[in-house]
Design a protein that fits this description.
Chain lengths: ~150, ~150
DNA sequence: CGACATTAAATGTAGGTACATATATTTGCA
DNA sequence: TGCAAATATATGTACCTACATTTAATGTCG
């Protein structure tokens, strides 16, 4: 559906304004689709993302600081997301022996099994970006990088 | 900064995976910048967006249903965002006389003044999309629309 | 007319984001 | 050594999202 129809706004002030709204809207659309796909596995999107980082580290542990570094959302509260994963027995938390300020977080066998099930279900096919050709994906990456170059 | 460095992940499995992450990350980056710009006016981003919709309707009222229809985030809770704006005296809520189930929501003079101040401060220059040429904006809009065509 | 579905908004709850502050541990240096 | 600064995480608060449920008003149709 065209962005004009999605938010019932027939005219945009400019191509810039339209692109801005389109970008936010499309990202939200993608995240909602993903979140819906994970829900039947009892995971939220941030929980899934952290679990995947932990699998990447496995069998080594990760610290909260490492999770934050790798997360898309730097300001989110990794500590509390780990709380939920711990309640579900998908990760363990132990004080790091080498540095007792830090906490070693590890994915459990149950966590690994769950991720395998999610992989098998092909949830990442929900991407929507598979609509784009390789060349278009490169174009998109270039444009997005350029937007953030305003920093 | 390149997306690889932003999230400390040196290699992406594919251009598709990279574009996906880039899209989510860039949208979040934009929203955080915007939110920061509004903060000194005491508004959150959703509050600002609703206030702007109300200005667009002014002097006609809007209903909650109309707000939801025009919001980027359809599942957000317009009713509670209006609560906060009402507390700040930026909008009024009155039962719609023609249909007593509905509620007429109107922006107040104080609300209009605040939006004028925000306009004057040039907050929308924070966009980041101003980095792109007109042709690039059209390209971006096309690519984003194509992603959502997966529906 | 009256029961029942529909519609409009509000409310409840779980979880997430943003940001400030607190607590515990380690490090650095006078 | 001892004490301040830095580091690692946890906690508090306000607000938001997602989604289910509730409450009230209106429509509809036998």
């Amino acid at each position: 559906m065209r962005i004009e129809d999605e938010i019932k706004q027939p005219i945009f002030r400019s191509e810039l304004q339209k692109a801005h709204i389109n970008l936010i809207f499309t990202a939200g659309w993608l995240q909602l689709r993903q979140a819906t796909a994970f829900k039947c596995f009892g995971l939220t999107l941030p929980q899934f993302n952290i679990l995947r980082i932990l699998r990447g580290q496995h069998p080594l542990p990760a610290t909260v600081a490492l999770l934050i570094e790798r997360m898309l959302d730097k300001t989110s509260n990794a500590s509390r997301i780990v709380d939920r994963l711990e309640e579900k027995k998908l990760v363990t938390r132990t004080v790091c022996p080498a540095n007792r300020r830090a906490v070693d977080i590890r994915i459990t066998p149950a966590g690994l099994t769950l991720l395998e099930q999610i992989d098998a279900a092909g949830v990442d096919q929900v991407s929507g970006l598979s609509q784009l050709e390789e060349e278009e994906l490169r174009q998109l990456n270039h444009l997005l990088d350029k937007i953030r170059s305003a920093d």
